[in-house]
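Model: You mentioned two targets. I'll fold them one after the other.
Researcher: Yes, keep them separate.
Model: Target one:
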Amino acid sequence: MIKLPDTIKWVITDFDGIITDNCAYIDAGGGISRRVNFKDVMGMSILKKNGYQIAVISGEKNSAIELLSKKFDICEIHQGIRKKIDVLLSILSKYSLSQEEYIYIGDDINDLECLEYAKYKITVPGAVAKVRAVSGIQVTMAFSGEGAFREVVDALVQ
């Protein structure tokens, strides 16, 4: 069970492998789509309704991120990011966030620096071994794209 303090104001997350099932579906025309679970979408709604802010830092560009950012008025969307720590530090500086005020959720090696930097860090069971080995990391019971993000939300909003 995920345990988080009541000081958290921001949820800063990767997208693919957290909100999605970490798969890209390629159609015959070369179009790419991703699967998103409505439990996780509802999680975004719950966060916003309860005064939390959401930031997405994704290594890929994804139309689903754009759609969700508009639907839930997500103020920090960063796509195609290779060095995520720079974006994380920029967000923390811009909003004067302390280590007590945010969580970082990630699952792969491009999230490592952010996870190592964050005081409150969460991953999913299918994360790469290096991420699961980060000191102090909490692992959701649900897998990516199957309600893992919502599990974190439920731990915050009780």
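Model: Target two:
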Amino acid sequence: MNDKYQSPLSERYASKEMQYIFSPDMKFRTWRRLWIALAETEKELGLNITQEQIDELKAHQDDINYEVAKEREKLVRHDVMSHVYAYGQQCPKAKGIIHLGATSCYVGDNTDIIVMTEALKLVRKKLVNVIAELAKFAGQYKSLPTLAFTHFQPAQPTTVGKRATLWIQEFLLDLEDLNYVISTMKLLGSKGTTGTQASFLELFNGDHETIQKIDPMIAKKMGFASCFPVSGQTYSRKIDTRVVNVLAAIAASAHKFSNDIRLLQHLKEVEEPFEKNQIGSSAMAYKRNPMRSERIASLSRYVMVDALNPAITSATQWFERTLDDSANKRLSVPEAFLAVDGILDLCMNVADGLVVYEKVIERRLLSELPFMATENIMMDAVKAGGDRQELHEKIRTLSMQAGANVKEKGLENNLLELIAADPAFPLTLEELKAKMDPSQYVGRAPEQTEEFLAQVVQPALEAFKDELGMTAQINV
């Protein structure tokens, strides 16, 4: 095991559930289900296929003789025909009707669609649980004032919970896109070498009406609403583009979330979970690095860049098909899913264990609040008979002086003391300090958070209530 390359996506990041969806076992079991669906459909439409043959195929649906297939592939250099051969060895009565009228893409492409659909559903389940964890966090801290930033410079206050709604909203947009993509997934069906169903025209003696029933029947047997109405040999590679694009969008949202957590951890305001025996640095024993958030960012960048692969592959397909998509698809599509799976597990884990340091938040906010309170102070002075323009200039001058004390001299912010000492402002220091209640400056942040959670988030979660309650297992 240690003498060859192993993908970190499997070894470190992706869950067992997602790894199984893209496993050889899932792939080849699905091939056999598709062969059974095709044989049943052909029997039901009048071909000379017996129930005994169908029963034989079903009896060996899951006990795949992999060694026989591998040995055959060494000889014939064709994976589909090797598995047709292996299945036929187990099903001698049905051997002659396996894969009847189909081309390799019947099992290959339909399986890809089935696998991606199952993987999208697992992604959706995890995304919903990330949203649920963040919603709990937002609700808990909906009224806790904190310093907001624009350009990472101090701006008007918000609340910790309101900030979390910004993360949730982006994930909800991804959930909308994800639901749409899942709703549009269709099978290729069985359309033959160039998509014309010419082989079935031969099998069914030119009976177009019967042939029109094949794809809908196969789709129903495989749990899909329909097949693509037209195709070349393959389903349009535009589908892979659509699928991986929605994964890249989820990755972008996760990256934004993780960046904010990393910045907040630097400020010592909010930290990701840090386990009792976790080591933050090999050199600096005191460090608590945001390694999970950093890993989210790292994997997210990979997925966002990976989305170029299906787009370029789709753009460069020739006519009814080429084979330059195959090697790329084997890498780019599964790896996008495995990485997003790991990303969402990490997001779930971080969101569930966020630690908020309220005193640090309060101290930083109070250090900046005097600057933000100047407009209210100025308005009170105007009400007492002062000149707005003159007061504005005085406030500006005193703010610059207080800022210099903080930045150049390392002193505390003494703006309130400077204002109290200026006779143009008829307010005592005690009266000014009374205006330093942070909750007076957060606007409608608590109400916005409540409304958003009740009116937007809860209905979205209610639609997937049976999938809630997941916990994420982080490997390293």
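Researcher: Noted. Anything on target two?
Model: The longest strand covers residues 145-146.
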